[in-house]
Amino acid sequence: MEKTGLVLEGGGMRGVYTAGVLEFFMEQQLFFPYIIGVSAGACNAASYVSRQKGRNQEVTIGYANHPEYISYKNLFLKKELFGMNFIFDKIPNELVPFDFNRFAAANERFIVGTTDCHTGKPVYFDNHKHAKDILTIIRASSSLPFMAPVIQYNGKSLMDGGISDPIPIRKTIEDGMEKSVIILTRNKGYRKKKSSLTKLTQYFYKEYSGLAASLENRYKVYNDTLDYIEQLEAENQVFIIRPQQELKVGRVERNQLKLTQLYEQGYEDASRLYHELVNWIQTNRKSALI
Q1: What pTM, to 2 d.p., does this model score?
Q2: Residues 6 or more apart whose Cβ sits within 8 Å of residue 59
Q3: Residue 5 in contact with residue 35, Cβ under 8 Å?
Q4: C-alpha separations of 159 from 119, 166, 210, 266 in Å
Q5: Which one-letter DSSP state was computed for residue 126?
Q6: Are 160 and 141 a contacting pair, CB within 8 Å?
Q7: What pLDDT digit, counting tens, does each position of 32-68 carry?
Q8: Paired strand residues for 8
């Protein structure tokens, strides 16, 4: 396990699938020494690292219909589709408390990916160095273009980590992980198309040329990453968990029934694949010792 990483894709409200998978992992006491995620993946990972069973479900599904969680009124008045202060301040500090002490004491290395708006390149933050600012960092990683403001942190202007490194498998390998478990939030065969909003990026982000360029190439980066992951899967270097049933949940879904069904799908997929996953981890560990 010491050289096995856990890689978490984002995907907005589709992240409830990941929440279901991680809930099953927690029940089985399956914790990876290295975890990396972006956007919704990072949000779910935080409660996994802090060992808070049920928290992701309570936050994401329980508050999906709350007007301060997702609202086009927010987008109009505050230029935020998701209520970022509500999600990253009121919920973790008051409504569904986040266990900051348990999180800070975790042995696992947890990496959050963000995007530098000036360069358009990924910037990663480690929980062992930035534990006290983890909510600000995850907020930056979750700040979607056109739907949330840029976050200033550590001398950088940051946004959604999924822009520059949507599924950070290369970073995982770079950090020394020999094998990785990857949780995706799209069905097999999905490929991203060029965004229709591409022409607006130069106008909205004229002071951030790097961000604009990364947004324009985002679909290429995403598709190239998926091609690379599938190559690694064929070489038995990664174990992929992804939705098996056709997705009925969008990035900004508010239907609690649909969200619950996707959460349960994640839980059930993890349960169904668990013994195969454990055997894969153990086999790879033995191979590494030969």
Answers
A1: 0.94
A2: 47, 87, 91, 96
A3: yes
A4: 12, 12, 12, 27
A5: E
A6: yes
A7: 999 999 999 999 999 999 999 999 999 999 999 998 8
A8: 37, 183
